[in-house]
């Protein structure tokens, strides 16, 4: 796993991974973590039951985690917690 991430960045990756409308490609572009590394981070951070629920949701088709599987009418989602992007990092409150 990419140990170069700060705790704040790890928290942000987890937050983005948990959000159904944020694709793995966005996480990779912003933090340099491929999908497999995001899954490892989630597995090592979440409780086992939470991780299983997340994986089930991601694989069920409900999630839009993969851009290729995503419906074209879905625009880029911007969370209300997301204020601005500076230096390719999303500022937190």
TrEMBL record:
What InterPro entries does the annotation carry? CHP03643
Region annotation Disordered: where it falls in the sequence: 64-93
- Residue ranges annotated as compositionally biased, kind Polar residues, are 79-93
Q: Per its record, how is this protein called by name?
A: TIGR03643 family protein
Q: Which organism's genome codes for this protein? A: Roseivirga misakiensis
| Upper taxonomic lineage | Bacteria, Pseudomonadati, Bacteroidota, Cytophagia, Cytophagales
